[in-house]
Hints:
It is globular, with a radius of gyration of 22 Å. The longest helix has 29 residues, at 116-144. With 430 residues, the protein is α/β, with parallel strands linked by helices. It has a seven-stranded parallel beta sheet, with helices on both faces. Strands 3-4 form a two-stranded antiparallel ribbon. It has helices at residues 34-43, 67-70, 97-102, 116-144, 167-176, 185-190, 192-215, 217-225, 259-273, 305-312, 317-329, 336-347, 350-353, 367-382, 391-410, 423-428, and strands spanning 21-25, 47-52, 55-56, 62-63, 77-81, 151-155, 230-236, 240-244, 247-251, 278-283, 418-420. It has a single domain (21-295, 398-428), classed as Rossmann fold (3-Layer(aba) Sandwich). It binds nicotinamide-adenine-dinucleotide. The site of nicotinamide-adenine-dinucleotide has 26 residues, from loops.
Amino acid sequence: MTPFFPLRQKPHSSPLKKGDLLVLFGELFSRGYANGLTEEAEKNGMTIVRATVGRRDRDLGLRALTDEEAASIPKPFINIPLEAGFDFEPDSEGISPVDRLKEIRLSDWESFQLSTQKWEESRARGRARFKENVAAYIAEVEKLWKPGQNIVFAHLMAGGVPRAKIVMPLMNRSFKGSGDRYLSSEKFWKSSIGQLCSMNFNEVTAETFRHLLEISTPFREKVQNSGGHVSYTAYGYHGTEVMIDDQYQWQTYTPYLQGWAKIKLEDISSEYFKKSVNCCVYNCPEILTNSSSIFQGVEVSLYPLLQAIEKEAPQSEKAKKILTECKGLLKEDCSFDDLKKYLNEYLTHPVIKQMNVYKEWPMHSTQEHLERMLNSSEEIVQMHKDAKNLITFVLSEVVFESCGYVMLHDSWSPKNSSAWIGHDLVAKCL
Length: 430
Ligand SMILES: NC(=O)c1ccc[n+]([C@@H]2O[C@H](COP(=O)([O-])OP(=O)(O)OC[C@H]3O[C@@H](n4cnc5c(N)ncnc54)[C@H](O)[C@@H]3O)[C@@H](O)[C@H]2O)c1
């Protein structure tokens, strides 16, 4: 178990300077966490090297972006497809995991059984393809680098839901299903399809960091030998400290099925940190992004950031503006105090609290827990004037900006291989 290591103070600005490189390992999406890093790097005059996961056409082959697709991406941009995972990779019989799942009907998902041997064959091929592309990618970074420049590599990758038609409805039932539609995440996770998900999540979310660290080693040594500095950041999730009963307390989203892969990511970081590599997994708060929208209810624990902002940044003009903007999004008959009271009752409810056990993380959900979380998420949305204009949109930006600052500067010389950014630090960065 990774020891809980929260960062409490806003780090000092690092020696990163104009012309240094921030190299993205993963694609930058609007609303995504990495926007905070790129904004902070731009403020410091750094050059951002962008990447892509690539695209798949109808024939399902993985390809780089076309000139037209790449035209709007600011340069430098390395157009080598960095998609990880193996759901489309054929095994020794020429059949991919997605093909194997194609014919299964929703009613038969539980009885579907397959030895993991077949998944492992596809995994080996997917891994070989990915490593080859990473080597080509690092060679391109090397061409962009000039002696005297420092480098920050930013690992953004997470995901790996197998793209077979049967998977999403099952996951949706585990993450959003209530009443008869509820599916226990544990039951799903232990099935053959769940095992495939677990293996692919590990490939995308965790092992990609190992490949980056390993394949960039000769280049890292070259930069360091020339007097340059190299560091690596990765985005983790392992619960967050938020304000509960007027104190910062650790809590988590459940059922976070990516959690086991995130633990592996922390382990990989620890392995390289021990070899004196400047690397750190920053465990960041729950926000709304393209990737997190499947986890409905994850955003409920973002609202208490309002209290952290009030506590930590009472004099900040920026903080005052944020609070005023957020208040303006609530219905006239709903005050900030009403929202705070509601949140505190939710976060201290025994059904919710029972999931907040750090040493047991990640836990599977119960129907009672999931329904309470989903209902609360819905009720909080109803407190807003417009369900399409939520406080969490404003707060997500606050979080990714603060995390971008902390990660860019702290990673110059991280004190631990994994660190937590809680609501206290997010607010202090204002
Ligand atoms: N959103 C949250 O609440 C939250 C909380 C803590 C940590 N994080 C982490 O932040 C990071 C960025 O996520 P985000 O929420 O900003 O969403 P995002 O959708 O903007 O980013 C997801 C990233 O994963 C990459 N990716 C997806 N599938 C991939 C695959 N098969 N192969 C290679 N790369 C792939 C994408 O290119 C993208 O860079 C992730 O590691 C995520 O786990 C998110």
